[in-house]
Amino acid sequence: MRGRSALAILLALLISVPVVGGTNSAMQAEEETGPCMDEPEQPCENQTVMYLWSNGQSRHWSHFNANETDNSPDNLLSQEKKSGVINIDQRFSMNPQLTKKLNMTLDGEVRIVLNIYLEGDWTNNDNNGPCTNDCDELNVTLWSGATAVITKHVPQVSSGWNTVTITHRIAEDQTLWDSSTANPAIQLEMKVKGDEQAGWLGTTQGTAANFSLRLSGDGQTRVELPIDPTSWEEGFQEDEAPMKSEETPGFLFVAAVATMTLAAVYLPNREKSESSRNRS
Q1: Residues 93 and 215: beta-carbon distance below 8 Å
Q2: Residues of the domain holding 253
Q3: By C-alpha distance, which of 82, 80, 53 is closest to 69?
Q4: For the chain, first and last CA: distance in Å?
Q5: CB neighbour list of residue 20: distance below 8 Å, 6 or more residues apart
Q6: Which residues contact 250 (CB under 8 A, 6 or more apart)?
Q7: In whole angstroms, what is the distance from residue 214 CA to residue 75 CA?
Q8: Is the separation of the CB atoms in 87 and 120 below 8 Å?
Q9: Given a cut of 90, is residue 252 above it in pLDDT?
Q10: Is residue 183 situated within a structural domain?
Q11: Are 39 and 237 in contact (CB under 8 A)?
């Protein structure tokens, strides 16, 4: 009987060893590859900054990878017009679309950093340029799907390069960003007017209109989002609650091994006891 009990216990130990080893191997593999490797353009534990990209012409997009091979070679998006109004209305929607549900930290800070070059006039009726009622100053909107998280009017810009920094605190109704309805985007709107004209002997008068955005190839233009660490916890991405302990594969396996061991020890003893009573 002792030999049979020892054999059952040894069998349980041998069966359980591969399970522990396999779990450790999986954890080590995940640590080596990192949590962002499968979807490098999606937000994850180590990627909470959204970057702005463009091909320099008609295609503009954003995502959470700091690298983009299709970005404009000079890392600039520019529009220029010698005379008249250039209408800037550029929306950098996340592409590929968001595939994860995000939990923003309540009262966490959104930080938008833009590097913008300006020439011309953009303020109406200030007697300091050609704008009358046909210009608009800079407006920046952060979108969560069809919901505007923040719209900021930015009049404090000047000719030449400007570093524009916009901050916003997440309100209670802005914490949950569902992947199906909250694809993030940044929209830039502005109307800049130029009045450059040819003068005598090849000279010019006035100033051309120019709007240029330095893209995220240098890491400066960006949107920092306060994505809460709970977004990466097990079960958050699922609509249902995490499995209970008795539903997990490990628990079921251990329970099965325990049952096998008990059967190996108890049943032979019971059979021997019943046999002894029958002989008596």
Answers
A1: no
A2: 242-272
A3: 53
A4: 21
A5: none
A6: 19, 23
A7: 6
A8: no
A9: no
A10: yes
A11: no
Whole-prediction pTM: 0.74
> In b/e form, how buried is each residue of 96-133, taking b as 16+ CB within 10 angstroms?
eebebbbbbbeebebebbbbbbbbbbbeeeeeebbbee
Tokens of 219: 């890491």
| Mean pLDDT of the 234-258 span | 54
173, exposed or middle or buried, with CB in 10 Å at 0-12, 13-18, 19+?
exposed
- Beta-strand pair 176-177/102-103: antiparallel
Question: Residues 262, 144: one domain?
Answer: no
DSSP class of 196: -
Q: How many CB atoms lie within 10 A of CB 8?
A: 18
What are 96-131's pLDDT values in tens digits? 999 999 999 999 999 999 999 999 999 999 988 999
Identify whether 153 is part of a domain.
yes
Kindly report, residue by residue over 184-220, the tens digit of the pLDDT: 999 999 999 999 998 777 788 899 999 999 999 999 9
| 87 and 209 share one domain | yes
Say if residue 229 is preceded by a cis peptide, omega within 30 of 0. Answer: no
Burial 23-44 (b: 16+ CB within 10 A, else e): eeeeeeeeeeeeebeebebbbb
Is residue 170 within 8 A of residue 161, CB to CB? The reply is no
Same domain, 54 and 157: yes
Q: 6: burial class by Cβ within 10 Å (0-12, 13-18, 19+)?
A: exposed
**Cβ(220)–Cβ(58) under 8 Å?**
no
CB 99 within 8 A of CB 185: no
